[in-house]
Amino acid sequence: MAYSEKVIDHYQNPKNVGTLDKSKSNVGTGLVGAPECGDVMRLQIEVDEAGIIKDAKFKTFGCGSAIASSSMATEWLKGKSIDEAATIDNMAIVEELHLPPVKIHCSVLAEDAIKAAINDYRKKNGLEELKFEESVIH
Amino acid sequence: MLKFPIYLDHNATTPCDPRVVEAMIPYFTNNFGNAASRNHPFGWQAEEAVDQAREQVASLIGADPKEIIFTSGATEADNLAIKGVFEMYASKGNHIITCNVEHKAVLDTCKHIEKEGGEVTYLKVKDNGLIDLAELEAAIKPTTILIAIMYANNEIGTIMPMKEISTLAKKKGVLVFSDATQAVGKIPVDVNKDGIDLMAFTAHKMYGPKGVGALYVRRKNPRVKVTAQMDGGGHERGMRSGTLNVPGIVGFGKACEICMNEMEEETKRVSKLRDKLQTELLKIEESYLNGDKEHKLPHVTNISFKYVEGEGLLMGFNKEIALSSGSACTSASLEPSYVLKALGLGDDLAHSSLRFGLGRFTTEDQIDYTIKQVTSTVLKLRDMSPLWEMYKEGIDLDTIEWAHH
To answer: Which residue of chain A comes nearest to B309, CA vs CA?
Structure first.
């Protein structure tokens, strides 16, 4: 299966690989996936006082599409408000990266990781956790 | 200068040796006759060529030429052997013993047999990929008609103890079939010394063309018969109808002859390269060899690089190096290799494996390059692996509640 150029570019030059201090109250961490399924994503956001995501980092165990999906998600997150971030849809990732049908689950995982990170942040800051509808494809 | 891409997937298929192609060419054009045409020189010529190839194929495995049934490949030979024996020996019993790391062509045929009312025992291999002989012995029943165990495994290269298996089988009067697709042409295989009654193998794994293979069917001690699975002109002693693929068969014969003459030298050279690759890659922290270290094909190694996913790893160099991963992330099922799981590997290790299959034309430069690329990609991906980070922090990954998809 041939990967799209964008996937290859994110794989070769991933953006925002790294770790934020998860003990800080303004850092939200989302860890999704499972080693048994062949992909695990950890996505972290650092939110400023105005509710804007000023930094995002990821680490991913998975195929090239999973790495690219999380790399791109961190790019999109930076500069967005935490509410805007919650609206990121996996299909936008699919379109941007030209993911084939068998790789759609990678984008779903990225969306789940974003949501998990947002909810982790909200929980830490005494906010109610957002309820998300189940993603269509799991 | 290295030429890319480097091919290290010789368990999937091999290139045709140029000497094989040369031998085949006349049989496409000038000598195009049907080997079954008895009345003119075109037919005679084709028949003569097939006879010669049959001898070349037979002598590589220590068989008599009359015991070679040409087929379209190993899958067909597997089907013919298992279904053919099941039907032919129905009055004797309906029980077949095989194992859980067989190729799909054997496993799926056995599933078919079960639907037809047969009983199949799937032996579990030990964590080195070999079957337990005591378990095999215990599984044999009065109704057992066939033991179907592969000669060597396609994913991990482990070689099964065929002699011991057939000794057990002989004692109980059970036939032995072996899918020897990966072994023939690579290591010495002798149907008499190994006590094999039926054996499937194919040309394209030994530098011959695709689309031609053979089933060895023993004619003496005991005389074995299989029920044909295709109706037609009664070719191949009535066991496999269909006009013979003369150019393919000629190429198969030539490929066998070359393997026979050059196996010893080739094994020395290739196993040295394989050992180098294996030794160097196992120096990477948290890398594990899959399958038995000793009983193994000389050109194969299968290694898991923990905390790195196989398909992601391949992507780091798959434009330059062609090899295969035990992870099937490309399929919707996300199931990792059943062979690796049969060894007792956790899904994480099974997802992290690469299979290296070296070959006749593999060079030391290629191996050096591969060592370098695989090593640097593993290190790079671990730097972005959350699992690696947790492992380094001393977190036991088994204690984490993963959100399963």
So the answer is: A62
Do β-strands A39-47 and B6-7 pair in parallel, antiparallel, or remain unpaired?
Answer: unpaired
Which of A63, A72, A104, A134 to mutate to probe the B interface, most B CBs <10 Å?
A: A63
End-to-end CA distance of chain B: 46
Chain A residues lying within 8 Å of B405, measured CB to CB: 33-34, 37, 105, 108-109, 138
Neighbours of B181 (CB within 10 A): 28
State the residue for tokens 């290629």.
Answer: B366
Cβ of B395 under 8 Å from any chain A Cβ?
Answer: no
pLDDT digits (tens, 9 = 90+) for B313-363: 999 998 999 998 876 544 445 678 899 999 999 888 888 999 999 999 999
For residues B160 and B274, the answer to whether their CB atoms sit within 8 Å is no
Contact A43, A56 (CB under 8 A): yes
pLDDT digits (tens, 9 = 90+) for B102-139: 999 999 999 999 999 999 999 999 999 999 999 999 99
Number of Cβ pairs < 8 A linking chain A and chain B: 96
Residue of A nearest to B389 (CA): A59
Instruction: Please state, in angstroms and rounded to a whole number, the distance separating the CA atoms of residues B292 and B297.
Output: 10
For residue A42, list chain B residues with Cβ-Cβ distance below 8 A: 386
Taking only the tens place, the pLDDT of each residue in B266-298 is 999 999 999 999 999 999 999 999 999 999 999
Entry pTM: 0.93
Sheet with B353-357: list strands edge to edge: B287-289, B300-305, B353-357, B324-325
What is the pLDDT at residue A35? Answer: 86
Judge whether A17 is closer than 8 Å to chain B, CB to CB: yes
Question: What is the distance in angstroms between the Cα of B341 and the nearest Cα belonging to chain A?
Answer: 11
Q: What is the sign, positive or negative, of the torsion defined by CA atoms of B123, B127, B128, B133?
A: negative
> How far is residue B344's CA from residue B156's CA, in Å, rounded to a whole number?
13
Please, are residues B324 and B355 in contact by the beta-carbon 8 Å criterion? yes
Decide if A111 touches B, using CB distance below 8 A: no
Q: Which residues of A touch B403 (CB under 8 A)?
A: 31-34, 112
Instruction: Give me the active site residues of A, please.
Output: 37, 106
- CB-based contact A36 B347, cutoff 8 Å: yes
SS3 B403: strand
Q: In which region does residue B118 sit, left (phi positive, over 0), alpha (psi from -120 to 50) or beta (all else)?
A: beta
Integer CA distances (angstroms), A130 to A119, A127, B343, in order: 6, 9, 43
